[in-house]
Amino acid sequence: GTPSPAAAEVLTTPAPALPPEAGDAAHASLARHALELVSHFRQGLAALPQRPPSAKELQQAATLLREQGEERARAIVTYALQQAPQTGFQMQHFGAVLGYQDAALAERARQAQREQRHQEARQREAAERHRAEQERQQQERAAAVLARLPDAQRDAYRHRALARLPARVRDMEGLVEMDMRWLVVEDGLVC
Q1: Measured between alpha carbons, how far is 28 from 68 in angstroms, rounded to an integer?
Q2: Are residues 4 and 32 in contact, defined by beta-carbon separation less than 8 angstroms?
Q3: For residue 23, what pLDDT is reported?
Q4: Is the CB of residue 13 less than 8 Å from the CB of residue 27?
Q5: Contact at 8 Å (CB) between 84 and 90?
Q6: Using an 8 Å Cβ cutoff, are 182 and 142 in contact?
Q7: Is pTM, for the whole model, over 0.70?
Q8: C-alpha–C-alpha distance, residues 87 and 80, integer Å
């Protein structure tokens, strides 16, 4: 449809970030996004304003969009809407959002850092699970190799494994069996 008079003003006001060759389509798109951003702001207010968005609000939204991009601009508005009630501030005009811009961007950076740390932790955990699974499979293959070895060779692995253990644990058969498997791996019989 036909844009409101305030939206039409945004359409006709030159946007410094848009090159002249961007043309009417780019300006119309910016005006539409500015109107959507102001609508997002208004929907989050405790009392929905009955008046139409002012040209100043649309211009402020367009400037915020040009400076921050659509995703960050929307995040700034959302942050302002969340924070204002906590401080008792009753926002009525879009310009109030601009006072929350720095804090919103700082919070967004902290969230990105937290997400990055969580992602890195998930990757480390996945790598550890993969390493443990690889090790488990290797131990299974080593056990199979040991089972096929002649008794004398298996006994030689047992003696080598016992020799590596401290005296007080040499009689713990489970550790000996595990170390025998490690020796098979170390000797290159299993990869």
Answers
A1: 18
A2: no
A3: 65
A4: no
A5: yes
A6: yes
A7: no
A8: 11
pLDDT at 21: 54
Residue range 59-68: mean pLDDT, rounded: 96
Rounded CA separation 94/91 (Å) = 8
DSSP conformation letters of the chain: -PPPHHHHHHHHS--TTS-GGGHHHHHHHHHHHHHHHHHHHHHTSSS--SSPPPHHHHHHHHHHHHHHHHHHHHHHHHHHHHHHHHHT----SGGGGGGGHHHHHHHHHHHHHHHHHHHHHHHHHHHHHHHHHHHHHHHHHHHHHHHHS-HHHHHHHHHHHHHHS-GGGTT-HHHHHHHHHHHHHHTTS--
Q: How far apart are CA 98 and CA 67, in angstroms?
A: 12
Which has more confidence, 5 or 62?
62
Burial of 177 (0-12, 13-18, 19+ CB in 10 A): middle
Task: Return the C-alpha torsion angle 66, 70, 76, 77, nearest 10.
Answer: 100
Any idea which residue has 């139409």 for tokens?
52
